[in-house]
Automatic annotation (TrEMBL):
Keywords, alphabetical: Periplasm
Location within or outside the cell: Periplasm
UniProt keyword RNA-binding, yes or no: no
Gene3D superfamilies: 2.70.98.10, Immunoglobulins
Name the UniProt record assigns to this protein: Glucans biosynthesis protein
Pathway: Glycan metabolism; osmoregulated periplasmic glucan (OPG) biosynthesis
Family according to the record: Belongs to the OpgD/OpgG family.
Domain of life: Bacteria
Primary localization class, coarse: periplasm
InterPro entries from the UniProt entry: Gal_mutarotase_sf_dom, GH-type_carb-bd, Glucan_biosyn_MdoG/MdoD, Glucan_biosyn_MdoG_C, Ig-like_fold, Ig_E-set, TAT_signal
Pfam families assigned to the protein according to its UniProt record, in alphabetical order: MdoG
GO CC, alphabetical: outer membrane-bounded periplasmic space
GO MF term set: carbohydrate binding; catalytic activity
Species assigned in the record: Roseiarcus fermentans
Amino acid sequence: MAPQRREILGWALGGALAAAGSRAGLGEAWAEPLAKPVPFAADTVLKAATALAASAYRMPDAPLPSQFSGLTFEQYATIGRKPGTAIWASDKVGFSLEPLHRGFVYTTPIVINIVENGMAQRLIYDPADYDFGKLQPPTGSGDLGFSGLRILAASDEGFQDVALFQGASFYRSRARGQNFGVTARGLAVRTGDDPGEEFPLFREFWVEKPSPASNTLTIHALLDSQSVTGAYRFTIRSLETTIIDTEMTLIGRAATDKLGVGAMAAGYLFSGLDHRRPSDWREAVYEIAGLQMQAGNGEWLWRPVVNRETLQISAFSDTNPRGFGLMQRSRTFDDFFDDVGRWELRPSLWIEPIGDWSEGDMRLLEIPVTTENNANILAQWRPKAGVTAGGTLSLAYRQFWCWTPPTKPPLALCTHSRAGKIGGKPRFTVEMAGDVFADPQRAAAAVADLHASNGKISFVQCFPFKDRRSVRVMFDLDPGSESFSELRLTLNLDNQAVSETWLYRWTA
């Protein structure tokens, strides 16, 4: 949901306040009205962010007719673009765009510019481009602006949704054949910290018209918040996996060391690890199963997530992380038995830093929820240095919206985690699968290396499965009087780790 609206900031750049122009100029395949063209260069957005940081923060605002500001989700969902109005749909450039209408919780106005041949032209809202269903379309309301942007990519089946930028700095993408799921953010500020979270927003987008042979789409974005401004460049490639390269420069309005970079969120309701919904007809309900990390020292870590009784925040300190992401590892219908949710079709989001990110920590938040409609699992990299007032921080990374990450550990991976109780004590089963266990003798020789920060491990047994090329570890935790314990498990052969490291926080 957008933050509370305030006065609009009166600054002009890149056509933000340019006067309305004619519909001609950027192709005949669409008739979106355009403002007067203005020059656009590689440093245009950075200059805008720098100028913006020197002024006081003001929330963008614009009048919104009452028939849109009070919409329910169901009413808002009936508003759609009319056929044939998608930008570039007939230009054979591999992508098309659909500016999104304002309404429901998406009331904050966003400026969208089209860039071609070094010139930018602002899109001007026209109600004729939208089908409002049973809603009464506005008359004489002027330029309402937009709430976001839908990106479509050409495929053998026609144009398919590949990305969606809407709401604060949130955006989504997916691989071919997937449903939308995990959500990314341009930036997070003070997530889980006092005096409360700050929600940066994208004020303006500049979308470069791609060449037919490029197979890439470049979007520039101007970010703004109480603490920072930022210049972003997203390069989108829609393949079997959708790849989004992100280059960002932040400018501090005020000093802050609570920035979340590569932030993402997804929903998790229950699974066999927590049994929060024993009466539910489904086997499990979650968009992602856990947080995967490759630390700077090369170690591969897997942290399954759960729907907690209380808010849990975990921090994994590291230097120059090699990769991280929220992963959906359950890829069969039988993992869920949900004909509507189809959780097995949700994307994994894997991020690989470009260049060194220095010291920081991987932050994981698990928030209690009672419905599947909340993104309650949050992950982000928090740089130790932060940004000073007037200072800058530049980072780059590559996102893979995928079925499985392109970089895989040469180790057995965790395929299942389950938990329950026996004799009043917590019991866990963790299954690791990989080619290393194809040889039954080697699988039988695997040794579980288990550690508990509090309490003690009171029972351990390993079960090899030839057909699954896996080893399942069963163990009990005797917590004593402790209310939590950090658990750590790897499978070893000849005193060498042959599995990723399984991490879990048990709480009473």
